[in-house]
Amino acid sequence: MKAVHRFIISGGGTGGHIFPAIAIANALKEREPQSDVLFIGAEGRMEMEKVPAAGYQIIGLPIRGFDRKNILRNISTLFLLWKSMRKARKLIRKYNPDAVIGVGGYASGPTLKVAAKMGIPTILQEQNSYAGVTNKLLASKAACCCVAYEGMERFFPKDKIILTGNPIRQNLQLDPEKTDEAYQYFHLEKSKKTLLVIGGSLGARTINQSILGQLDKLQQAGVQVIWQTGKYYFEQMKAATDGNVSPNMIVTDFIAHMDYAYAIADVVISRAGASSISELCLLGKTSILVPSPNVAEDHQTHNAMALVNKDAAIMIRDADAPQSLVDEAIKLLNDTDRCKTLSTHCAAMAQHNSAKRIAEEIFKHIPA
Ligand SMILES: CC(=O)N[C@H]1[C@@H](OP(=O)(O)OP(=O)(O)OC[C@H]2O[C@@H](n3ccc(=O)[nH]c3=O)[C@H](O)[C@@H]2O)O[C@H](CO)[C@@H](O)[C@@H]1O
Cross-referenced CDD domains, in alphabetical order (predicted)? Predict the structure, then answer.
């Protein structure tokens, strides 16, 4: 094996693909500090900003996703796909990687396809319990597929599947001795129950409306709330709540200190995005999941059901949330035994050290 290796990581589109990709890059560098990692993403997408912020170089392909509604637009998409394949081939020839890792999202399609054709080992990482289209198409040529859920033989060749879990941030587990710090950070009281409301990296409209519509109930129940609205809904929620919420209801667009928020949450209301679920499992949190109905192949419902089937979370459908979300949350907060059962089952589903395990898999496939 060479002393220093070069890796390409490709994919992106949402935080859900990008943050795991960065965690994998960090794990590769931890294992071999001299190694070099190049990212390939899609021009104009979120990865072009987040990856350099994490200290890595990224090059964009002129690719975009296929439009399922406007078929004519796909003619130009095909041309962009062809251009992207050419650019990916040039980049791979020049960079000469030892392995190429795909984390899902259409940006990874051309890079991984070209790499496999050139005989370079390709490794896939699938975050969700229902595999994305790009990863499904790439799987037959991949050296292995690192997954986060059981039962992924539905999508990938059985002998290539490795259950590693999703690589998530290392610093989410707060030292129990620092819980007081977390209460102080949010100006909340230790003696009261705390509900954490998160809607994925961008916030969730239905969850916001469900909380807003039943604010009185929450306040009457004496529950403290940390409510992440997402940046698009923040001004609207802030205006609607200004002056009529007690100080123990925190309304924010984004929570930078998720370790503090998780540490003091008795119950978490969340979308069922892959990283959010992996975090809830790792920390053994009691949760109510409201899957987004607006994602490809309804994959968030599949993610949520993986927990519900093991009595590890409660699921409420998006359409039912305005009616029942707050009632269910209050009921759960008052039922310590039920919280404990859900939390224990959820923790049992956690996968530990995922980024490190994925990095080890990648190294296994590097040619000697
Ligand atoms: C709408 C959409 O397309 N969502 C998809 C997106 O998820 P999306 O990027 O929304 O969400 P995930 O749940 O995977 O990850 C959210 C991340 O943001 C963090 N966070 C969240 C709120 C906050 O205030 N602060 C904060 O730091 C969470 O701790 C977590 O690490 O990619 C995932 C992985 O493919 C998919 O499963 C989701 O279906």
Answer: GT28_MurG
Mean pLDDT value across residues 81-104: 97
For residue 255, give the ligand 1 atom closest to its CA: 24
pLDDT at residue 1 tops 60: no
Same-domain status, 328 and 181? yes
Q: What is the pTM of this model?
A: 0.89
Residues 324, 359: one domain? Answer: no
Residue 196 shares a structural domain with residue 211: yes
Residue with tokens 């490709």: 10
Task: Let me know whether 230 and 153 are in one domain.
Answer: no
Q: Do 94 and 67 have their domain in common?
A: yes
Question: Which pLDDT value is given to residue 314?
Answer: 98
Q: Which residue's CA is the closest to the ligand 1 atom numbered 38?
A: 273
- With a Cβ cut-off of 6 Å, ligand 1 is lined by 14-17, 19, 127-128, 198, 200-202, 228, 254-255, 258, 273-276, 279, 292, 295, 299-300
Q: How far apart are CA 10 and CA 45, in angstroms?
A: 13
Could you tell me if 328 and 314 are in contact, meaning their C-beta atoms sit under 8 angstroms apart? Answer: yes
| Total domains, the chain | 2
Residue count of the chain, please give it.
Answer: 368
For the stretch 147-174, what's the b/e string if a residue is b when 16 or more beta carbons lie within 10 angstroms of its beta carbon? bbbeebeebbeeebbbebbbbbbeebeb
Residues 159, 234: one domain?
no
Q: How far is the CA of 270 from the centre of ligand 1 (A)?
A: 10
Distance (angstroms) between ligand 1 centre and the Cα of 104 equals 14
In order of 85, 97, 137, 217, 338, the CA distances from 115 in angstroms are 10, 9, 14, 56, 49
14 annotated to bind ligand: yes
Domain span holding position 65: 6-166+353-364
The ipTM value here is 0.97
Q: Report if residue 1 sits inside a domain.
A: no
Mean pLDDT, rounded, for 154-180: 91
pLDDT digits (tens, 9 = 90+) for 4-25: 899 999 998 877 888 899 999 9
The CATH number for 321's domain is 3.40.50.2000
Each residue's pLDDT tens digit, 96-116: 999 999 999 888 999 999 999
User: Same domain, yes or no, for 199 and 331?
Assistant: yes
